[in-house]
Amino acid sequence: MRLLSIECFDTPDEAVRWCRDVRSQGLSLGFVPTMGALHEGHQTLVRQAAAQNDRVCVSIFVNPLQFGESRDLETYPRDFDGDAKLLEAAGCHMAFTGTLAEFFPGRLQADGGLQPEFMLDPGPFAESLEGEYRPGHFEGVATIVGRFFEILKPTRAYFGQKDYQQALVVDDLARRTGGPEVVVCPTHREPTGIAFSSRNTRLSESGYAAGLFLSRALFAARGLWLQGERDAQALSSVMRGVLAQGDLTVEYASVRDPRKWSGSEPKGAMERAVALIAARSGEVRLIDNMLLSDPEPCQD
Amino acid sequence: MRLLSIECFDTPDEAVRWCRDVRSQGLSLGFVPTMGALHEGHQTLVRQAAAQNDRVCVSIFVNPLQFGESRDLETYPRDFDGDAKLLEAAGCHMAFTGTLAEFFPGRLQADGGLQPEFMLDPGPFAESLEGEYRPGHFEGVATIVGRFFEILKPTRAYFGQKDYQQALVVDDLARRTGGPEVVVCPTHREPTGIAFSSRNTRLSESGYAAGLFLSRALFAARGLWLQGERDAQALSSVMRGVLAQGDLTVEYASVRDPRKWSGSEPKGAMERAVALIAARSGEVRLIDNMLLSDPEPCQD
Questions:
Q1: How much is the ipTM here?
Q2: Does the distance separating the beta carbons of A217 and B223 come in below 8 Å?
Q3: Fewer CB in 10 Å around end: N or C, chain B?
Q4: A231 touches chain B (CB under 8 A)
């Protein structure tokens, strides 16, 4: 008797064999990379993957390469036991984990880190905003995600709009390296408006209340956009005004053209816009993003 | 043995005697008129009254004079049993209720309504917004509140900023009739940002999610204000843009000078501003207001 019909592998080798088997049968494979501590936001990605592919696999790996602050890595929530159930309920067929040494055999340094020559270039979308506040972060993301693409060879890979700049980095990486089609899914929000994030569990009650100002700021910018405002400075200004009402340390609140990424806010009338915010509520760093120019399915 | 130390009276006569006794001892009397279905917002008013007065009394009366729609009157939540405990916990000394006939002895018509000559003029602040969407509402509010002032002779009376226009109407009434000092208290918000309201209990889950857009719109307008925007049209425009993202039927979303009330939005740079919204989420009518120019203690 099996409690779960989902396959769970502790090593990448088994996962690689499973994926090879799927593809050899001519089946499409959807891939959702995660760092565990799964929540409804991940389930939305898995559901989307299950709707568009014959098989879905999920990686559960807290990638040390993308954590600049060791404290953030140490405190990143882990609940591997709860993860499999959530994945199965959302339509996932296989989940796997592994260690950095297993994902990069023979490529680690004596200190346990990856040898620098195997780090991937995160490309032009890694500039500014997250790239500025988390130096090396996107290099770490690109390196692990590029490695997953290389060994699993998925048909499509799924990322959330909440981490919009990351989705741009990964999409660019996939295009440059012949990787999968990258699908960016709408942000899944809690009924309060806050984007689902594993970090939310680390927020105190007052920290959570402050965190709500990120989505409030995005709704405000989108409200201005809907009223015809097309100037990046005006759009980011209202976000800063909203964020100032919360007990937050704002790192950035900015607007970019999602197709013509630039190191600073574009001048002149925008045709498309994405609003991007990062702020700290106490010790917890929160980010949230919203496409202003596309329909945004709100929390559901 | 008494379970509650608060006095509860079923008729206005007892309440009037209690208040007369308080005042004859030279004690100050704070008064909080309510329609029952009490929540933390009311408790905030009672706490404020208890902090500023020797004694606090609360009326619990679902005033038929102020309900234009009989369905709204019928479905207005009632929980008189739960109310006394909340009042005592907040520092209230006396609560009373009564019937329209008891509050206006000998002044009712055959159909049970008040004879028109006893309805009070709600004054100039009743114009537009609530006055437009709820014809007769402020006349009903002024009439019952004016009657309470007349028979209880409180030192101070307490109202919430959430119903800002009502507070203006009552303040004007008190000044015209030699009534109490009217104290307008900051809006008490749920952690989600929605203002505490008895009507919130009638919202479905999705209705509540839509209702959150009222406070989001107010935070957006206040965000613009904090960034230096002083034009009423620009401030109300962002509110309409935010509200458009929710499943709401907006009645009004407007900005006024709280000291120079006008039937339409002021032109030119404002020195003080209050933002006012009324919208229906399904069958539930919600209103929320925020002073843009004053410090707004957010949810706590």
A1: 0.86
A2: yes
A3: N
A4: no
